[in-house]
Amino acid sequence: MNDERTMKMKAYMFNRKKYRELKKMDHAQMDVFFQEIYKQGYNAGMAENKMDIGAGREFLLEVLSDIKGVGIKTVQKIMAEFDRRVENGTNTGTERQN
């Protein structure tokens, strides 16, 4: 997995041409330039995280289904809560919904 991430990170190369362009930029141009780089990294991270969550969701579903005494309705409730928290970006477990 680290090799995959390294390959993805190397997709953007800061070459000599970009360096020269950056040296000539004023403050506003640099701000836009770095915002774009940040957005690209953020979007790539979010996409990778969604893939990880999908695999985690499937694993959680499998584990819950294997537990004796945990019925389908309980599994559905747990998975609904899991999906809700993933959608809202909350994972602390401190907020309760009755």
Description:
With 98 residues, this protein is mainly α. It has one domain. Helix content is 76%, strand content 0%. It has four helices and no strands. Helix 3 runs antiparallel to helix 4 (72-88). The radius of gyration is 21 Å and the shape is rod-shaped. The two termini are 39 Å apart. The model has no long low-confidence stretch (mean pLDDT 79).
Strand elements, count:
0
Spell the H/E element sequence: HHHH
Query: How much of the sequence is in beta strands?
Result: under 5%
Described by strand count, sense and barrel closure, the largest sheet is:
none
Structural class: mainly alpha
- Average pLDDT, all residues: 79
Q: In which range does the helix fraction lie?
A: over 70%
Q: How many domains in all? A: 1
Rg on CA atoms, Å: 21 Å
**Tally of DSSP helical segments:** 4
pLDDT < 50 runs, ≥5 residues: none
Which of globular, elongated, flat, extended, rod-shaped describes the shape? rod-shaped
Cα end-to-end separation: 39 Å
Draw up the topology in text:
Blueprint: H1 2-9, H2 16-24, H3 27-66, H4 72-88
Helix pairs in contact: 3-4
